């Protein structure tokens, strides 16, 4: 099959629609993953068993089940108990919830890496727990884990095509739909593959730069 630039030109409007959906899912999913991951990490360090145990069980369950199964559950099963969600909303929640269990481990490692003396100093100053976390522990922990969090953003980008299964047509979903309609897969799939490289590779370089600066 020969390359046809007319096919590329015809596909581009749908491609840009897919880019928008991809970026929305990536940005919102990342924010959800970072926020929930921090909540999970702090909750797992709670001295209260009734807080620590359920959170650990939930995060382990999510981490050890496929993202695709979770997306199907959110899109097809959850609406039976509550309001239905749009495909994009479901995709954002699915990606964010799934990756929050991994970012929780990243945060946990960062928190464990804070020197014990910092905890002792906060105790000696009689800082309340909230102040200890927000002013002493978390600023140091998060600084250490930014590069690792960035790696999960790239991983989320590469998993974003899964949301097309539930109807949120991101870049690859649009390419597959266009190919099914026109029987031309070469051009749209190639364009999408290049787009993923152009997004992921510069992002990985940025993460390396951040890592070098933050470890100084």
From TrEMBL:
Q: Which gene encodes it?
A: ehuD
Q: Where in the cell is it found?
A: Cell membrane
Recite the UniProt keywords alphabetically. Answer: Amino-acid transport, Cell membrane, Membrane, Transmembrane, Transmembrane helix, Transport
The record ties this protein, via InterPro entries, to: AA_ABC_transptr_permease_3TM, ArtM/GltK/GlnP/TcyL/YhdX-like, Ectoine_EhuD, MetI-like, MetI-like_sf
The UniProt entry, under PANTHER family, shows: L-CYSTINE TRANSPORT SYSTEM PERMEASE PROTEIN TCYL, MEMBRANE COMPONENT OF AMINO ACID ABC TRANSPORTER
One Pfam entry for this protein is: BPD_transp_1
For the ABC transmembrane type-1 domain, which residue ranges apply?
15-207
- Membrane disposition: Multi-pass membrane protein
Residues crossing the lipid bilayer are 20-43, 149-169, 189-210
Protein's name in the database:
Ectoine/hydroxyectoine ABC transporter permease subunit EhuD
Q: Which family does it belong to?
A: Belongs to the binding-protein-dependent transport system permease family.
